[in-house]
Amino acid sequence: MYSENKSKDTEPLGKRNVKALGLVSMFNDIASEMVYPIIPIFLTAVLGAPVAVVGIIEGVAEATASILKVFSGWLSDRLRHRKTFVASGYTLSALAKIILSVAASWLYVLFARFIDRFGKGIRTSARDALIADSSTPGTRGAAFGLHRALDTAGAVVGPLLALVLLHFLDNKYSLIFLLASIPAFIGVGILLLVVKEPKHDIKKTEFKLKFSLRSFSKPYKIFLLVNVLFALGNSSDAFLILRTQSLGYTATGAVLLYVVFNAFYSLLSYPLGKLSDRFGARPILIASFLLFAVVYAGFGIAGSGFILWILFPMYGLYMAMSEGISKAYISNLVPSETRATAIGLFYTSTGIITFFSSLIAGLLWNYIGVSAPFYFGAVCSLIAMVLFLKDNFLSEALN
Question: Which residues contact 320 (CB under 8 A, 6 or more apart)?
């Protein structure tokens, strides 16, 4: 744990930054979630692309974001201009919506998704480090919780807007993509006008950053290894949507379940973040591994569609217990000058493994059965929980 001294004069700026960054993410997520659920339909039904192309596009998009996060985080730490990375990233994602609106073939969509995820890759680590820099160790859980709550509120509104627009615009996808750029650019405007870079006490002569795991603390490396193992079983949420269809839900029903999941995620993120500030992030993160195992086992066991109305809210609770709190936990394990690098390395490592976990899940689904990916995920989560509880074992292994 690194101690940090922040003057009381910086507290109003920090609170304003956290709230503003939350609003920026909310508007960006409204835009993204207006687009994301309907892109596969647009590709296959309108552009006539084969289903394999959908997988290629999403694979390239997510791999781009995952790989960039550690390098953009490293540059953000080195240059100390986090806002520049955040603003550039959100602007690229907004422009991607306009590119989508003129798509005449799947190659346009590939380019648009690449630009969108390129933007996500260069902004995410710097944004999370900016949130950490704008808060104190005692308020960091609440800060990340508030950000996740506002971000996920956008993920609730976006799909609902997409459903309404599809109905009233008679499936005019290009117009919906263009309209999605409006909230995205609103978010960029809030960022440029409201968010300010906190002052850093680090002198350039004292600052030497080497990109090496050895520069990070042992607790950080243990947490990274535990989450890499967990990520092996944490496949894409697309498999949750596929599970709804296997239990008889239509596309509309699947979207509504997705909205319920995001609603619980949004509502619970801030209070759980506050709870982590009071009692510590570690016990909540341990409990999140256990809850994930229970939820995934539930998806595997489920024999009727009714149980999904319990499992999706529980999955939202899991996300609220893990997503923001894990970033707060990491931020408290590393100093400010390597914070974005540490967060970026976490994103990149788990993101790359998640790509392979989705491949494993697809093979398990096809060759063993629809329940197999979820049982596999539950087992990986339980192993990760045990290793996190018994971190002395990993500590000795890292010596």
Answer: 145, 148, 264, 265, 267, 268, 269, 272
CB 373 within 8 A of CB 365: yes
Domain that holds residue 323: 11-198+215-397
CB 98 within 8 A of CB 181: yes
Q: Mean pLDDT, the chain, as a whole number?
A: 86
> Does residue 48 sit in helix, strand or coil?
coil
In the prediction, which pLDDT does 135 show? 86
Q: And the tokens for 321?
A: 């217990």
- Tokens read off for 38: 């309907």
The total number of structural domains that make up the chain = 1
The candidate with the shortest Cα–Cα distance to 399, out of 209, 211, 222, is 222
> Which residues, including other chains, have CB under 8 Å from residue 292's CB and lie 6 or more apart?
230, 234, 318, 322, 377, 378, 381
Q: Which ranges constitute the DSSP H helices of 332-368?
A: 339-367
In a domain, residue 339? The reply is: yes
Q: For residue 316, give the CATH number of its domain.
A: 1.20.1250.20
| Structure tokens belonging to residue 356 | 């392979």
DSSP category for residue 212: -
Please tell me the predicted confidence (pLDDT) of residue 12: 66
* 354, 234 contact by CB (below 8 A): yes
Sequential DSSP letters for 220-273: HHHHHHHHHHHHTT---THHHHHHHHHTT--HHHHHHHHHHHHHHHHHHHHHHH
Residue 41 lies in a domain: yes
Residue 127 confidence (pLDDT): 93
Q: Phi and psi for 67 in degrees, rounded to 5?
A: -70, -40
The pLDDT value recorded for residue 92 is 97
309 Cβ partners below 8 Å, 6+ apart?
Answer: 257, 260
In a domain, 207, yes or no: no
Name residues of the chain where pLDDT drops below 50: 7, 9, 204-207
Whole-structure pTM value:
0.79
Write the DSSP string, 157-178: HHHHHHHHHHHHTTT-HHHHHH
Q: Has residue 6 been placed in a domain?
A: no
